């Protein structure tokens, strides 16, 4: 694999760390700025909103910009946002810093997926995307626990300062390692015509179905883990201090699932989606029961992470294949779809809890979401088979990935 993927993975590691580390730092924000817990929680929800807005906005505004340069701009924006958070004198400044850094999130992963896929031969594109996302999964195993510990024991400001340094490293790596012209369309896609081409991708039913699968499938994971702390303490009987290592187990599962998903998404993407979504639905449903047992919970959590993240490479590859002529906006919006799924799952899980459901009931919400994503995957395959049967003999499929001038092996 090209060494340029290392730079993308470092950027993904920094982004993953800053996205999730605030969940463990809310008490520090409350103590420093004198705000309530719900107000401190805006550092998480504001970030998610920034991802949803920033992903399509920056993808469109940066449509005429070379993808390598756009990646560098995103990492510069990410670095500035975290540096601003580190020195924030008031809570609103911290929020501004969080939003600024979040604007880079969706566009970096969206553009990075295009660049990663086009740095390698077509048959290895899902593996390349998975390697970039490995940085995000490792962040959940190493970056978030370490950042939380640093913030709790020393200073939360130092946590954001270190993340800003990671941003500088990623920016330097992209500048030095990503080839000039990496990921560019052979015919060029800049200007108004390029923007129209990008939006045209959303007329493809397969693109829309893939995004819906992203919202429901990945959202199913967050229906469970959003409420993992009360679930593990109230149902499984763990102490609050044990939740951190349980999240590490979840993160290890994510790393494994992402790598395995990348490997098999190049060979059989549809089959992998069927298996991972079906298994995710079953495991989430079982978690309603196993979450009442310490050992059962510890075994089930990494399975949830593994099956959940096994869906990421095939879904992102599906977007790139079906929006092959102009993939930047579609890819970036699909990253926003992950966050939309997170927010939807958290909301639905909260409704179940508010209605009097037990602490493990959000897992059933997640299982239903994963099963719905599986149904959409079957629908997508059925529509695709019908399209191929109707296509005249000898007419090529525009969605088949093709080598690009910058492709290397």
Instruction: Calculate the mean pLDDT score and round it.
Output: 83
CATH architectural designation of the largest domain: Up-down Bundle
CATH class division of the largest domain: Mainly Alpha
- Briefly note the structural class of the backbone: mainly alpha
- The helix/strand series, from N terminus to C terminus, equals HHHHHHHHHHHHHHHHH
Largest sheet: none
Number of strands: 0
End-to-end gap: 7 Å
- For CATH, the homologous superfamily of the largest domain is named as MFS general substrate transporter like domains
Please compute the radius of gyration using only Cα atoms: 21 Å
How many discrete structural domains? 2
CATH topology of the largest domain: Growth Hormone, Chain: A
Count, helices? 17
The coarse overall form would be globular
Helix content: over 70%
Percent of sequence in beta strands:
under 5%
Low-confidence segments, given as residue ranges, are 187-193, 393-409
Architecture overview:
The chain is built from 17 helices and no strands. The C terminus is likely disordered. The protein has 2 domains: 184 residues, MFS general substrate transporter like domains (Growth Hormone, Chain: A, Up-down Bundle), CATH 1.20.1250; 201 residues, Growth Hormone, Chain: A. The longest helix has 29 residues. Helices cover 78% and strands 0% of the residues. The termini are close together. By secondary structure, the chain is an all-alpha fold. Helix 12 packs across helix 15, helix 13 runs antiparallel to helix 14 and helix 13 runs antiparallel to helix 17.
């Amino acid at each position: 694999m090209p060494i340029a993927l290392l730079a993308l993975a470092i950027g993904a590691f920094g982004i993953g760390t800053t996205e999730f580390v605030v969940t463990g730092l809310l008490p520090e924000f409350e103590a420093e700025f004198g705000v309530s817990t719900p107000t401190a929680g805006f550092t998480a929800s504001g970030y998610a909103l920034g991802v949803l807005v920033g992903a399509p906005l920056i993808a469109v505004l940066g449509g005429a910009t070379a993808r390598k340069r756009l990646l560098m701009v995103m990492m510069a924006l990410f670095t500035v946002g975290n540096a601003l958070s580190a020195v924030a004198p008031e809570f609103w400044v911290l929020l501004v810093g969080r939003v600024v850094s979040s604007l880079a999130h969706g566009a970096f992963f969206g553009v990075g997926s295009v660049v990663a896929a086009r740095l390698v031969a077509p048959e290895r594109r899902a593996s390349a995307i998975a390697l970039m996302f490995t940085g995000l999964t490792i962040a959940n195993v190493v970056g978030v626990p370490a950042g939380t510990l640093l913030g709790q024991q020393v200073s939360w400001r130092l946590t954001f300062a270190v993340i800003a340094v990671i941003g500088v490293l990623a920016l330097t790596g992209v500048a030095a390692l990503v080839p000039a012209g990496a990921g560019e369309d052979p015919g060029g896609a800049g200007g108004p015509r390029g923007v129209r081409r990008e939006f045209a991708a959303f007329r493809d039913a397969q693109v829309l179905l893939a995004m819906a699968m992203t919202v429901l499938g990945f959202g199913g994971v967050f229906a469970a883990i959003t409420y993992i702390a009360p679930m593990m303490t109230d149902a499984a009987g763990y102490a609050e201090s044990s939740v951190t290592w349980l999240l590490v187990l979840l993160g290890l599962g994510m790393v494994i699932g992402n790598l395995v998903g990348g490997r098999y998404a190049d060979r059989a993407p549809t089959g992998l989606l069927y298996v991972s979504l079906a298994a995710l639905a079953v495991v989430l449903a079982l978690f309603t029961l196993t979450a009442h047992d310490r050992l059962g919970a510890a075994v089930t959590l990494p399975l949830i992470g593994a099956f959940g993240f096994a869906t990421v490479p095939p879904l992102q590859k599906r977007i790139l294949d079906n929006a092959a002529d102009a993939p930047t906006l579609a890819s970036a919006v699909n990253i926003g779809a992950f966050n939309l799924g997170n927010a939807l799952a958290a909301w639905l899980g909260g409704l179940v809890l508010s209605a009097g459901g037990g602490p493990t009931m959000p897992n059933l919400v997640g299982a239903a979401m994963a099963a719905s994503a599986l149904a959409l995957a079957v629908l997508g395959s059925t529509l695709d088979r019908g399209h191929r049967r109707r296509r005249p003999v000898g007419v090529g499929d525009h969605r088949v990935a093709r080598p690009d001038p910058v492709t290397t092996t």
